[in-house]
Give the backbone structure.
Amino acid sequence: MGKKGKEAARERREQRRREVALLRSLPYEPHQRWWDRLAPRAVAVVTGANRGIGFEAARQLALHGLHVVLACRDAAKGQDAAERILAEAPDDTVVSVESRKLDVADAASVEAFAAWAVETYGGIHVLVNNAGVNFNKGADNSVEFAEQVIETNYYGTKRMIDAMIPLMKRSAYGARIVNVSSRLGRANGRRNRIGDVSLRDRLLKDDCLSEQLIDEMITKFLEQAKQGTWSLNEWPQMYTDYSISKLAVNAYTRLMARRLSDRPEGQKIYINCFCPGWVKTAMTGWEGNVSAEEGADTGIWLALLPQETDTNGKFFAERCEISF
């Protein structure tokens, strides 16, 4: 892409950001607020909610009137974040939040959290899978912590989805699962695609996509990372381990949407993923160009959409569908 093309693309992105900012300023109309028609109050869980995009997602959902559980690995930081949301809420707004310890990389922790959610609320209505790690900054592209990145970003998200699906409350409006992902995880992206054409094609074809295929890809990459041979193969060349973890999240989102698609009315679960953009958070070393509030917006929009069967198993950015 030449200089003019890059400038035009940048202007389109900025124009879309302005449009979304306007949309974000518009209140939901009473007929759009399906969560207000649930009794008792709709319950949302946001993982990794003590800072960054997760904190903003929790804050915005709470301001919209849902009861939000900030699920955080560090219990003290989670409690501090919950208290901050309460303290900063406008005087005319009643918010309901609490924090709960959760480490998505620990199966026992996820199991305990699920048991608590059932005992306390009988289930949940919204799950935002935000918890994630990335050890690369700037031009770095080390895979030293690849196992930890994959375990948290992919297996942690998968673990939460599998544990929470039986807990998603039945309603006429459907339950929502929203996965925080990244354009870096696009199988066919322009800059960071998977070089193995056969693998890329199988990941993008619904009749080929399977849990086994995703896990085999992860296993192959981790083996090559240990052997030091990963760079000789055609893996994404930017933030490689993070990109592959998000590629797996995207693929699993599509797979789960297909598995959940035949649930009867009243038991629907809509699952989608989104890219928040390059957000100014600790994960990016505060080098992003989008605020956490902006970054969380598309996820909140997906969580609060009216029930729509065609908004399922999709990938979004700036409230627009993008390709996998």
